[in-house]
Amino acid sequence: MGGNLxxxxxxxxxxxxxxxxxxxxxxxxxxxxxxxxxNIMDTATYLFLAEKGxxxxxxxxxxxxxxxxVEAYINPVPSGLVLTGIVVSVSVTALMLSLTIRLYKRYHTxxxxxxxxxxxxxxx
Amino acid sequence: MNKKIARLWNTFIxxxxxxxxxxxxxxxxxxxxxxxxxxxxxPAPWGNEIRAGLLExxxxxxxxxxxxxxxxxxxxxxxxxxxxEKANLYYIMINLLLSSLLALIYTNDLxxxxxxxxxxxxxxxxxxxxxxxxxxxxxxxxxxxxxxxxSGLLLMGLCxxxxxxxxxxxxxxxxxxxxxxxxxxxxxxxxxxxxxxxVGLAIKSALYPFHxxxxxxxxxxxxxxxxxLSSLVSKGYIxxxxxxxxxxxxxxxxxxxxxxxxxxxxGLLGMIMGSxxxxxxxxxxxxxxxSSVAQIGYIxxxxxLGTKFAIVASVFHILSHxxxxxxxxxxxxxxxxxxxxxxxxxxxxxxxxRNPVAGVAFTIGACSMVGIPLFSGFISKLLFAxxxxxxxxxxxxxxxxxxxxxxxxxxxxxMKTVIxxxxxxxKDTSFTKVGILEHPLYNIALFFMIILNxxxxxxxxxxxxxxxxxxxxxx
Lengths: 124, 475
Prior knowledge:
A: about 0% strand, elongated, B: mainly alpha, two-stranded antiparallel sheet
């Protein structure tokens, strides 16, 4: 068990980062810190994919001279998934930031709880 | 683009997609077996695929119809509540949402499913905040936070699954998962991955403890958005989850994995707590929104029972809830309009007389939610009860008890509302009576929603047969 963990330290770090990002996104009150948590969480996923997609000693499947043995190359799909994931997380982050700007302009605070109390007051 | 042209285009596209879905459905009925279509130039284990079966085709048709009706029912509100220059963006969001829903229904590739889950979330966020006020922006932010949590979990689960199996296409993953499961080598990662996917999708579809964004989002956005969000968006994720149950992990492995027990418990909690919150609510739109929380709980309870018949009941409840909830939202807005725009119960007194069509429609929706025979809600409750009897003994009793309690609670808040809107008010000249012919589009939409509800309620047997054979086609 411990030996496995040491050999796959990249994946272990990715999982720890995922946990950090997840709890930040869930528990932080400040919106900007929440967004930072979101980015840490997404990046951890890409680290995990990249770690899993690389096999030591092999190279990217770009053929310059002769096609070598199948064993010489890695699978390009995980890297492609990372790129797709980055695009998705960039757009989600942009949307979150624009929402934050709107909330800040309206309520002059970044604290989610304070915004909620202000909304309740507005209603009464 | 001009607002009117955008609206026409949008209607045209919706009708065209509805017609094509209907054609596909009829074709699938005739052929009786699913077909896959290769996207791009690479064949099965590497490339991307979409797959159509009986259940997918029918779901797509149903989603299109509900979307068209909700949009038309709330048309006047879209025209008045949304800024002139933003109206065409609203229609773009609607089309984006429909396309991502269809992709979620038809896709045979897990990573494509993830990408479209995100697109679905973003467009739903647009639908919430198109009507700009503090409440909707706050609700949209909360929604995005919750959704990001859900999609983070979903993505991580998919990555682990991809890591174990080495495939992204659903049918290939299923073969590998069956092999890995038989070998017994990767049982813990497999369980973690299943758990992450289930919890991620449950968060995204607002299962009980993750519902905090929902009342504000449904209560203050424009009425079509609320109807579409409650009846379609959350259902798209649930449909994806059912697909993952059957086509990715395999039903037996899911049942053995114990993850469904978690869904079961939270489903039961949602059934009770959603209704309790709805009783305490003083605002008609937020009350309907909390009722959605309870109904999502029903669906997850069905998924958690762990028998095939319970899944049939859940799929039927997806249909039943989608048709009823959109009806309630659209009818509710007619009642609030007849009360000077106030959503408080006090002001709604007697509104059933001021807008008779909306009053009748709301009553029918309420009866369906409570589970009166003739309407769709009765059939889904009946199916859930039958499924509970067929499930394991330890789940049967809690299910039946919670069904009974939840039905009583439903009856309390819906019948309270119906009595309220039909309580005659003393002569009050401040509100004008809405004539039957005054809002033709609104009334036609309501009429078709009632018909849809009655079809689900009265001809349930063919629909149950269709769902059963569609689910068999999955496996």
